[in-house]
Predict the structure.
Amino acid sequence: MPRTEAAARRNPKSATLIDVAQLARVSVSTASKALNGRSDVAETTRERVVEAARRLNFVPNTLAKSLQTGRSGTVGLITHDFDGRFSIPLLMGAEDAFGVNKVSVLLCDARGDAIRERYHLDVLMQRRVDGLIIVGARPDTRPTLGRGLPVPVVYAYAPSDDPEDCSIVSDNVAAGDLGVSHLLAAGRRHVAIIAGDTTYGAAVERVHGAKRRLSEAGLESLGGDAFFGSWTEPWGRAAMRTILTQYPEVDGVLCGNDQIARGALDTLRDEGRRVPDDVSVVGHDNWEILATGARPTLTSIEMNLEEIGRLAAQRLAEAMEGNVSHGVEYMAPHLVVRASSVA
């Protein structure tokens, strides 16, 4: 028989849906509908049921709920990002989008290994997740998982090579354009581009956007192209030293990431160039621990990784309801202005 409220509160783990229904003075089916957000329940009734559940510290039986709805209330996120630099913001965005206590996100690290990815995929399928988000190690096209999976899949940060899949990625071309536009607005006309590894699509795309914007302004980057290298501070220092030697008129520098920009700032300071009075510097990725710790603090382009995670979760939730999206969606970047680019 249903227990009293006092008894249920003394032993909250054993409070049942019957107890909630009795306290709210509704049927068990109505209590279930109210707690599951069904639209065919009056708002006043829903409020009464929710209040009764709160008073009883009612904890839903997730197994029973999954049997009833055919869903586990979990999704899997498989990442290839070794250190979490990109996957953690994506995970935070996805969890925000799914909402607290509604959908749990299970994080698996495949470490750039296709075999490990397949293992995690098999485990997640055994756990009967309702969908998958796949995060690449780098923002380059990756192989699709295929079309035979029993749950919907969304690719984030790195797009799938299948145009029928749904992929959410950063707009790196727009990021390069945005960085140069800011330097031009600051009055800079002798702009150098220090880029990362040419094997990364993001490096090439950012340079493409930057050079296109310079061309629209009737200018070209110093040396006619970017200085490509690695994604490191030592490369930023070395490239900046070369630029100062060959093109002493440089008054603006767009860097492929924040590590490169930190290195460039070191060399400019060593060579007696004032930032931003003599040379303005802009980075990419807005890695806050680097950008705010730089001397001076670094203007950087935010790639909105949390927003990519939110949109990936939204598209996955839509696909779980039968509304599947296809193709690649690009997330626009925005600029975070600090002391390195404007006085």
